[in-house]
Amino acid sequence: MAIQVGAVFAAHPELGDHRAVHPWLIGWLGDPHAPVWLVSENPSATQVDRIHSAVATPESQWAASRGDALLREALVEHGLKLGGELAAGGWRCYLTNVMKSEVFVKDWNGTRSQEQLRVAEAWAPVFGFELEVGNPKVLIALGGKAERALNHLCKKRLLPGLPPTIRIDHYSYVMHRPDNRRGLGPGHPVRQVEWKAALGAAAARI
């Protein structure tokens, strides 16, 4: 897949090729032939910068924040990751991003929706390649923005088709943002339990 990623960066220099600084940041992790895929929107440059590149490996992805810790705990609890939360290998799922280029969330949130979707379109050949090779049985869209990007690419017929897709909250929302409606703060134990249950129920759909 490195060839496809390189082609996108070559065709779209405005995306900012991060590979010279963060060669380990590939935007996917796990077993692409696993039936369960978890799909985020794009890598967070803020979290990427927390990982020391000199010692980083592809396994360093999804392992920097409190949200990442919740994700890894849930994967182990539901048998989607074997050998421990931070152990190398043992993947019985596949983690990926619709877009492989890193963004600072604050800047990205300030970008017009149409421009965000154009970036998703630029990365559609790579994500489409992943789908064709991996043939997942269920996609778990992590958050509304990932779901929106997937729906947009399908509507534009830029993807070969999607398996059943289930949206759950992004783990970063659970751990870093308050639930003002219920008065529950970031990382509240109730929210963590609920999120793990939602992930397990979505994965069980296969």
Concise synopsis of the structure shown:
This protein is of the alpha/beta class.
What does the model show?
With 206 residues, the chain is an alpha/beta fold. The protein has one domain (2-203): Uracil-DNA glycosylase-like domain (Uracil-DNA Glycosylase, subunit E). 42% of the residues lie in helices and 10% in strands. It contains 8 helices and 5 strands. Strands 1-3-2-4-5 form a 5-stranded mixed beta sheet, sandwiched between helices. Helix 6 links the parallel strand 4 (138-142) and strand 5 (165-168). Helix 3 packs across helix 8. The longest helix is centred in the middle third of the chain and has 22 residues, at 113-134. It is globular and about 45 Å long. The protein starts with a helix and ends with a helix.
CATH architecture: 3-Layer(aba) Sandwich
Q: List the secondary-structure elements in sequence, H or E.
A: HEEHHEHHEHEHH
The total of helices stands at: 8
CATH class: Alpha Beta
Give the tally of structural domains. Answer: 1
Low-confidence stretches: none
> What structural class do helix, strand and pairing data support?
alpha/beta
Give the beta-strand count.
5
CATH topology: Uracil-DNA Glycosylase, subunit E
How much β-strand is present in the residues?
Answer: 5-15%
Largest sheet: 5 strands, mixed
- Trace the largest sheet across and list its strands: 1-3-2-4-5
In whole angstroms, how far apart are the ends? Answer: 26 Å
Mean of pLDDT: 96
Helix content: 40-55%
Specify the overall morphology.
globular
Radius of gyration: 16 Å
